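User: Here's a structure from my thesis project, written as structure tokens. My advisor, Dr. K., wants to see whether a designed sequence matches the one we expressed. Can you design one independently, without my sequence as a hint?
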């Protein structure tokens, strides 16, 4: 199957308000769960979960 990449992708988007992928509360809960995984798994996945939690936490508004 060939892909023609010479034409730009265009589209229209509605003006309706779109919801965030996660709410702030959901993001905070996900961070808490990632931190728990970090504590429970001392291997590579635990460290990766902790790093992801830290990265996500830096993106949240302070409050």
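Assistant: Designed independently from the structure alone:
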């Amino acid at each position: 199957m060939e892909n023609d990449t010479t034409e730009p992708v265009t589209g229209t988007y509605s003006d309706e308000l779109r919801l965030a992928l996660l709410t702030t509360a959901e993001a905070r809960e996900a961070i808490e769960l990632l931190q728990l995984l970090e504590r429970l798994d001392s291997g590579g996945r635990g460290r990766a979960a902790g790093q992801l939690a830290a990265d996500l936490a830096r993106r949240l508004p302070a409050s």
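When you compare it with your expressed construct, this may help: The chain has a mean pLDDT of 84.
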